[in-house]
Amino acid sequence: MEVELKLLVNKRDVSALRAHPLLKKFALAAPREQRMHDIYFDTPDLQLRAAGAGLRVRLVGDVWVQTLKAGGSVAGGLHSRHEWETAVAGPVPELALLRALIDRKSEWGKLLRSSGYEQGLMPIFSTQMTRSIWDLRLAGGDEIECVLDLGYLERDGQRVEVSEIELELKAGDPLHLFDVALALQQQVTLQISNLSKADRGYALYKPQPVAPVTAQPLQLHRQMSIVQAFQTIAANCLAQVQGNEAGVVHRLDTESLHQMRVGLRRLRCAFDLFRGLQPLPQALQADLDWLMEQLGAARDWDVLVGSTLPAVASAARGEVRLTALGLAALVHSRETHAAAGAAVAAPRTTRLMLGLARWLLVVGNQPDQQMKRLPGYCRSMLEHYQRRLCRRGKQLEDGSVQARHRLRIAVKKMRYTIEFFESLYPAKKMRRYADGLAMLQEQLGRSNDAAVADRLLRQLQDGSLELAGSAGFVRGFLSAGVALDDRLMREQCRRFGTKKLPG
Q1: Single pTM value for the model
Q2: Mean pLDDT of 21-25
Q3: What crossing angle do the helices spanning 254-273 and 226-243 adopt, rounded to 10°?
Q4: DSSP string, 250-278
Q5: C-alpha angle 196/202/203, rounded to 5°?
């Protein structure tokens, strides 16, 4: 199993990387330099790609080597994949050699043995790289290969530049890959890369639009310890966060930003749910709160521009013109999106993601916590969250904004918790319970959107006399709907209070 951490480095920082004190301190010798030419192969309909595998033939010096990588996982930039490698005579794969290494019962073994498969292979893209390799031996004896790749991917005249670092664990603890990355990042601007060269190269063959990444279904097992469950849940949340980075940074996409924020909220819920394991270090908590604040500002303007103002305009039926107000809000939306994109691309976010991934490898390593099993813990936490939700629902009677906000947070945490633990309980019962939560959350969401809109509209109103009339109209319109929403929320809370937890 190959275990490596991939990081992007700007070409202007390459000299600083080469001169980094860490490399000078732990490198066993001067870096080895290689010129590499890779050719990636697949069938026209990308059967290997669909199976989660990649096949390349590489020329290093005058030797050709074929490599198949498959399976594994990516979390926090840490790539873990199965790898099989053999020498070959020339620039084409020789599958008979790989078949001898790969279990014939595995998905990839079956694919390589399927009739006519080898004849259907074709070059998909190629690479040209200059590689510098430092062999590091850390103070504790861990052996890490630090690789700097500079070059490009190419297909039919199209090129994608490559400037990245790979830290591959040769011997020792994966934890120290993050230690090295964090040390390098103190002096060199780095970004986590969850995409391999193959991911980027395949995009030249068949371009894939950047799409928002939603939370993927979780599969927990009743035999897991609570530590294992927490690590699985947190990794799932981080995957959602990092999967939306490109959409936020490069496209300023509203839905990517929303889903990244959801991933961070789910992650904070997981920290709360398993807070007894080990507190999150203060520095990571501060960085997490900062990133949430950056994304939250942009999301607030998105909702006003894309949802609240159009809904009011539709309901008002021409009683007031909101065009100028909408354009002013759109300017703020674009400004805050640009700021959010810059924050996600900033070194502080890279440090946060590396730090969280590192922390998750060591959290809850105490033997007594490893032995605790999941079902009892899940039940107790679900009961605790439901009691809190019902208690806060009763506090709605005072009609305060604070009561609605506290209830909304409780509902969100309960809904995320249900999603985390869903695989441990009967699906139909969990779905009915989750549907009741969703209806309550929808009511609370509308109320919160109105409160946020009032704050933003007041900001626009104070900044421009021309917008005062239309902003005041919308604020009054929204205020009139709050009382109705409160009545509906109280009714939803009473109905939900009669629901039993899935057993």
Answers
A1: 0.87
A2: 95
A3: 170
A4: HS--HHHHHHHHHHHHHHHHHHHHTTTT-
A5: 100
